[in-house]
Specification:
heterodimer; A: mainly beta; 11 strands; B: 6-stranded mixed beta sheet; 5-stranded antiparallel beta sheet
Chain lengths: 114, 111
C-alpha cells in the first residue's frame, strides 16, 4: 500500500510569489490535513479537508488556502510569499469521519522563501 | 498559549541509557498520541492512549496516560541510536478534526 506522497519535495521561491503544493493521500483515505512546521513554532495545523469540504481551519492568514479534489488529492496554495513562510509543509491523510482516527504523514515539502 | 508542553526540549544520551520525556497540559483530553519524526521525514504514529492511567508498551518504549488525562510520559529503556529523532505528542481538540501538537523533544542517542 503506497504511503502519502507530496510534491515537490523542495522548493525555493522569492518573496511576493505564490506557490502550490500537492498531496496524494493513501488510497481509500478521504481526509487530508495540512501542517506547517518551523523550528520556532513547531507543528501547526493549517486546515483539514474531507470529501472536498474544508471542515477545520487553523489560525493562518487568508494567503494560505487549500482544496481537495474528488479523488481525495489535495493542494495548498500560499500567495504573496513572505520570508516567514519558509517551513516544512506536511500533509497527513486518514479515513476521517471523526473520533480518534490515525493520521499518516507524508515526507513534506521544504519551502524556502528568499 | 501552548496547549501541550513537552519536556525536556533537548536530550542527548549515551546508548544503553534510559530516559523519560513528558507531555503536559492543563486541559483534559479524550486521548493522546505520540509520534516520532526523523530528519527529512514526516512524523510517524507510535501509539494512541485513551484511558486514564493506561500503560502501553512498544518493544523498549513504554507510554503512560495520566490518571486525569492531562499528561503523558514516554519512557525508553536501553536507548539505541535508532531512537534518535523528534518526539511529539498530539491531541485531537474536542468537537473538531484538528490536531494540536506539543512543542517536541529532540532526542539524540550517541553510539
Amino acid at each position: 500500500k503506497a504511503g502519502v506522497t507530496q510534491t515537490p519535495r523542495y522548493l525555493i521561491k522569492t518573496r511576493g510569489q505564490q506557490v502550490t503544493l500537492s498531496c496524494s493521500p493513501i488510497s481509500g483515505h478521504r481526509s487530508v490535513s495540512w501542517y506547517q512546521q518551523t523550528p520556532g513554532q513547531g507543528l501547526q495545523f493549517l486546515f483539514e479537508y474531507f470529501s472536498e469540504t474544508q471542515r477545520n481551519k487553523g489560525n493562518f492568514p487568508g494567503r494560505f488556502s487549500g482544496r481537495q479534489f474528488s479523488n481525495s488529492r489535495s493542494e495548498m496554495n500560499v500567495s504573496t510569499l513572505e520570508l516567514g513562510d519558509s517551513a516544512l509543509y506536511l500533509c497527513a491523510s486518514s479515513f476521517g469521519g471523526g473520533g480518534n482516527y490515525e493520521q499518516y504523514f507524508g515526507p513534506g515539502t521544504r519551502l524556502t522563501v528568499t | 498559549t501552548q496547549l501541550l508542553e513537552q519536556s525536556p526540549q533537548f536530550l542527548s544520551i549515551q546508548e544503553g541509557e534510559n530516559l523519560t520525556v513528558y507531555c503536559n497540559s492543563s486541559s483534559v483530553f479524550s486521548s493522546l498520541q505520540w509520534y516520532r519524526q526523523e530528519p527529512g521525514e514526516g512524523p510517524v504514529l507510535l501509539v494512541t492512549v485513551v484511558t486514564g492511567g493506561e500503560v502501553k508498551k512498544l518493544k523498549r518504549l513504554t507510554f503512560q496516560f495520566g490518571d486525569a488525562r492531562k499528561d503523558s510520559s514516554l519512557h525508553i529503556t536501553a536507548a539505541q541510536p535508532g531512537d534518535t529523532g523528534l518526539y511529539l505528542c498530539a491531541v485531537l481538540t474536542s468537537g473538531t478534526y484538528k490536531y494540536i501538537f506539543g512543542t517536541g523533544t529532540r532526542l539524540k542517542v550517541l553510539a
